């Protein structure tokens, strides 16, 4: 079926949503669905408007200037939908482009679906704008009310959103490329570049260095824990507005900037433990990447960790928001971080079971069901999951 796929982030941008949307579009096309991708043109990109892709106008997102909002009028999108005649319009990210795309599709009687990928309402409190949180949540609810089905990554998030008044929710999950993220990619030369001796444990964090990611907690815990483990190294992969201040506060940590592809996989595999202190991620793809790389994971019991980690078996968990509990979980993870430990073997085994093809096949099936049931006028409040 003809699908319009709307997203405001896409490679060459580097983030979990961009990479997941690109993988999803590739899967749908490989499955035989013509996909018309609509996204904002990024800096330095050529204009494009053909059967496969339209790069619309855009503008920088406040606080995230490297990302862009998409800008298109509802009238322009209605004309485009009439020309393409899609069976379904799917929006992957919230924003002006998503609102216009869903409104245009509803006006044309086209089935719609949307992803809930980011807790933007929760971000407000990390930038001194906590009073905006209920307003942002209400805005997100209005956007998703225009969709015949909204996909969420976990059942826990579905329950939370349902309690807030969101309807027609389907749990889609996430996957991991366990062939790329593999302990076999461990690189002793890379470890030496980090200043780690053969027996020194290396703690890793991967992600955007921004207030809502809570990276400072991981670094504070590392500073305290290395007092008892002088050889404990800390490697931080990623970039963002907090990087300069974090580097000043933790000069002995190794900040390596953004890494992608095979290079990122080597960084995972060359570490021993992984700290994921975020409380705002709806999923956190890095959790599965760390498990697939066979690392001893410490995280709060939420998002991907709540789905894929059994405390003490394949990782170590702390109650959400319990900073002392997170440090204790990290200490337990480091105690089991030696190469070949049972916990690290189980981490790898649990991630291998989260296969991307199976996740994307389920997503594709629900998209087809939404288009079929909406077209037949049979879609009620329950999502076709």
From TrEMBL:
InterPro entries: Glyco_trans_4-like_N, Glycosyltransferase_grp1. Pfam families: Glyco_trans_1_4, Glyco_transf_4. Transmembrane segments: none annotated. This is Glycosyltransferase family 1 protein. Residues 14-180 form the Glycosyltransferase subfamily 4-like N-terminal domain.
